[in-house]
Amino acid sequence: MRMIGWLAVAFIVLHGAMIVWLPGHAMGVSYAFLLAAPMMATVAMFYHHRQRQPAHPGWILAAASMGLWTLGMLASCIQDMTVATYVLAPAAVMLIYTLYGVPITYAIATVGTDASTWSQRAIDAFLALALGLLYFGLIQALNALNIVGNDVSPPLIAHLFDLENAYLAITALIRFFASDSRQQREFFGVLVVYTLSYALVAFYYNHHVALDAAPQTGSLYDLMVDVPFLLLAVSGLSPPRQDAPYPSPALARFVRTASPQLLALSVLVVAIFLMRHRFAWGAAGVVLVLLGSGLRSVLGEVRHAQIEGQLRDDQMRLAELAHIDVLTGVANRRAFEEAYARATAFRARRGVSLLMIDIDRFKQYNDFYGHPAGDRCLQSVARVLRSLEKRRSDVLARYGGEEFVLLMPDTTRAGALLLAQRLCDAVRHLDIEHTASPAGRVTVSIGGATLDAAGGSLGRELIEAADRALYLAKEGGRDRVEWASGPARD
Questions:
Q1: What b/e sequence results for 256-290 when a residue is b if at least 16 CB atoms lie within 10 Å of its CB, and e otherwise?
Q2: Residues 304-362 pLDDT 10s
Q3: Where would I find the beta strands (DSSP E) of 279-416?
Q4: Which residues span the domain enclosing 345?
Q5: How many Å apart are CA 377 and CA 383, to the nearest integer?
Q6: Which of 238, 252, 361, 437 is the most exposed place for a label (fewest CB within 10 A)?
């Protein structure tokens, strides 16, 4: 890093030495260095963009500004080297120098802000371009009041460029102090170094050099013009300070939200001033601001509505996932507990029935066939149980391990018993091999209980009753249904 700094110093020293050694070609020599400096800054910005992961759009915008400034300097060089009659600031060259600030303005208004859609970005880009064009129109309008022959008023041009440079420096400084991420702080820190140094150099050069000490390019004063561009190239290679304090989240959010609005406000202010001299241009600018800001607000509301909709959908999916057993796809124990609490609190007129379903000798199955086969067995049994669960009010859940539970609101003992026997038959007909089972295949045992509508057990007693019935079914030989009030065989 120190080597790069010394190379920048050597560039400036060489610039001055060439002017001294070749006084007869001082203008051409100086223009060569004044073109090389912004070109080096342009290349450095592209290099920074490629080196940053993830890529940061601000570096490309800074490179675009440097490219425009280089183009403006090239136009000045062609004019001074080829045109006999010297004109300080022709309209074409002045337009390029004015538009040079458009990419930086766009970067300050949009980098790291909440706007994320291409349409919002396009509106911001259009407003940034409109700001540059309207400001150029204001310069031309004010210059028209100071025409003397074919020349325009140089001090007025200098003051107007001072305003543009101060605007860029102040807004970049605001974004730097409100940056809440390392990438943004790095970019806006580099931008602050450049815009502040450029504003100071341009102020001194435009007011005291170009208008008094050295009206033509080719003096040692030109060395100061190299400085902002070399600082931009060098400072971008320096790592950001990790110990720099970050702003409060509220300030960062406010600046991110207000930055695009400040761009629109800037366009509006310039348009209003321009209306005094060129009413049609100024009025068009006001209309563009109103339309652009209004459309941007509408697009922002649409975007927020889409985000809120996506968040609601995500929340619903997460809520569903929180109530689903991942392996079997049926409800999990949490979902069953919530459904059970509702069912027992608001018993239907025919009561609530509950089935506790357990795969017989599942531990031996897992040990003999392996856990992957055990998972497939659980999934197959769950599919069969779910296929027989016909009513939307019924809740089939994995209660734990190889145990399932079926909650059936508004179901009598007779109806639940009939379904339990069908479940036993269906699992047996899966014909999943199980050598440790007396039946030679996978079977289930079921315990059931019913909570009458007019009274009966409350709280956990229905679950406990069904669990006791399941224990009796296993003790009675498995592959059977046992009810809390008495046995029932299929």
A1: beebbebbbebbbebbebbbeebeebbebbbebbe
A2: 777 677 767 666 666 666 788 889 888 888 888 888 887 776 655 557 899 999 999 99
A3: 352-359, 395-400, 403-409
A4: 333-488
A5: 10
A6: 238
Same domain, 194 and 71: yes
- What are the residue ranges of helices labelled H in 52-152? 57-82, 91-99, 101-110, 118-144
Of 119, 246, 257, 264, nearest in space to 179 by CA:
246
Q: Are residues 199 and 340 in the same domain?
A: no
Note the pLDDT tens digit of each residue in 205-250. Answer: 988 887 777 778 888 999 999 999 999 988 766 655 555 567 777 8
Strand-by-strand arrangement of the 486-488 sheet: 395-400, 403-409, 352-359, 444-451, 481-483, 486-488
Q: How far apart are CA 262 and CA 416, in angstroms?
A: 69
The Cα-based distances of 7 to 4, 13, 237, 277, 354 in angstroms read 5, 10, 13, 48, 84
Whether residue 159 is contained in a domain is answered as yes
Specify the pTM: 0.66
Q: For residues 120 and 110, what is the distance between their CA atoms, to the nearest angstrom?
A: 10
Q: Left if phi > 0, otherwise alpha if psi is -120 to 50, otherwise beta: which for 181?
A: beta
168 and 213 in a single domain? The answer is: yes
Count structural domains, the chain.
2
Of 315, 345, 371, the residue that ends a domain is: 315
**Amino acid identity for residue 66 in this structure:** M
In a domain, 92, yes or no: yes
Helix (H, G, I), strand (E, B) or coil at 347: coil
**How far apart (Å, rounded) are the C-alpha atoms in residues 310 and 231?**
45
